[in-house]
C-alpha cells in the first residue's frame, strides 16, 4: 500500500502503525488495535492523490444519501 507520493518517513510511520496494530491484536486490545489501524489509514491516505480522495468522498456521500432515502423515504 505504499504509494508513489510516500516518502521514507511516511513509510516508516506506516510500518510502525501496522506493527502497533498487530501487537495490540495479539494482546487482545481491540481499542488499541482500532486506533493503530486508524492511524495506519490516515498515514496511507495522506500519500494519496487529493483528487482521488475527493472522488471517493463524493461517492461515499452519494451512497449515504441514497441509503438514507431508502430507509426514510419522503412521503
Blueprint of the fold:
Blueprint: H1 8-27, H2 30-46, H3 50-71
Question: Order of helices and strands, N to C?
Answer: HHH
Kindly name the structural category.
mainly alpha
Radius of gyration: 17 Å
The shape, in one word, is flat
Mean pLDDT: 91
Number of domains: 1
The main pleated sheet reads as: none
Count of beta strands = 0
Count every helix, treating DSSP H or I runs of 4 or more residues as helices: 3
Q: What share of residues are in beta strands?
A: under 5%
User: Helical residue percent?
Assistant: over 70%
Show unreliable segments.
Answer: none
Distance between the termini: 45 Å
Short key terms for the protein model shown above:
single chain; 75 residues; mainly alpha; 79% helix
Would you write up a description of this structure?
By secondary structure, the chain is mainly α. It has one domain (8-71). 79% of the residues lie in helices and 0% in strands. It contains three helices and no strands. Helix 1 packs antiparallel against helix 2 (30-46). The longest helix is centred in the last third of the chain and has 22 residues, at 50-71. The termini are far apart. The model has no long low-confidence stretch (mean pLDDT 91).
Short account of what is shown:
This protein has 75 residues and is an all-alpha fold. Helix content is 79%, strand content 0%.
Amino acid at each position: 500500500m505504499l504509494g508513489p507520493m510516500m516518502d521514507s518517513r511516511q513509510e516508516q510511520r506506516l510500518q510502525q502503525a501496522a506493527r502497533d496494530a498487530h501487537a495490540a491484536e495479539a494482546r487482545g486490545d481491540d481499542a488499541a488495535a482500532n486506533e493503530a489501524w486508524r492511524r495506519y489509514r490516515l498515514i496511507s491516505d495522506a500519500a494519496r492523490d487529493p483528487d482521488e480522495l475527493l472522488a471517493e468522498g463524493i461517492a461515499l456521500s452519494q451512497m449515504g444519501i441514497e441509503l438514507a432515502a431508502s430507509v426514510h423515504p419522503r412521503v
